[in-house]
Amino acid sequence: MNRRIQGIEKPESRPRGNCRLVPGLIGLLVCVGVLMITPGSGRAVVEEDVRALREDMEQVKKDLAEIKSILQSATKRRGPEKSTGTVGVTGGAVLGKADAPVTIVEFSDYQCPFCQRFSLSVFPMLKREYIYTGKVRYVFRDFPLSSIHQEAEKAHEGARCAAEFNKYWEMHDALFQNQKDLMVPSLKRYAADLGLESTTFGECLDSGKYQAEIQKDISDGAAAGISGTPSFFIGKSGSGDSITGTIIRGAQPLAKFQTIIDQLLSDHDSKTDASP
């Protein structure tokens, strides 16, 4: 998952320093040629061009200093990313046993290509080895990046509408498998393909009834330090409505998840064996 610094803009008047520098040099050379041919006739023109070039170079220096200051300020505010964090487990779609010793909370975006990569390659293996065997409880929470993925939020609404028919995870898979087409008519077609009653699903999707729940997921994720997708919290399950665990960012390979999960399972087994 790549990170970018955005929002650095310069007033329209500023770029003129860069734009005028090369033409100014050419003009200066032409004037020098004229001066050599007719001494004294072009001296005033040359002096004016030299003065303009100096002003432009000073403006370029000021622009570069301003950009440097903005970059340094942004880096200082952001600080290092946390490797652990606490996040809620309520409100998301759940897969696996409620009493599984390990919980994974994923924040994802149905239009994010890295989320799709994880869903199609790593997630099936996690389900087979950990979730379906009762070792991991998996919680999927919505984090559509609507500023760059315009169709994502509606896709998340569609998955929640499918949950009303107990088909959340089937729709989850269909959305990632058809990520290039998440327009509303297509969402309704995927629902029909899953056997969902078309009128009821369409009314749910068109109403926007789950927008508030999706926004809550986004707010919770941001408060926990999430800024991109996919992001994961892996921690020991508890009786409360949150977990504290290791944060994984990006579409990492299965081995990255296995290392953390297996250590947590080992710790759990050790404590269980030590209990009277």
Treating each run of at least 4 consecutive H or I residues as one helix, how many helices? 10
Q: What is the distance, rounded to the nearest whole angstrom, between the alpha carbons of the first and last residues? A: 46 Å
Number of structural units classed as domains = 2
Strand fraction band? 5-15%
Order of helices and strands: HHEEEHHEHHHHHEEH
Structural class: alpha+beta
Shape: extended
For this structure, the CATH topology of the largest domain is: Glutaredoxin
Q: So, the CATH homologous superfamily of the largest domain? A: Glutaredoxin
Measured on Cα atoms, how large is the radius of gyration?
A: 28 Å
What's the architecture of the largest domain in CATH terms? 3-Layer(aba) Sandwich
Mean pLDDT: 84
Return residue spans where pLDDT drops below 50 for at least 5 consecutive residues: 1-32
Describe the main β-sheet briefly. 6 strands, mixed
Strand order of the largest sheet: 1-6-5-3-4-2
Write down the CATH class of the largest domain: Alpha Beta
The strand count comes to: 6
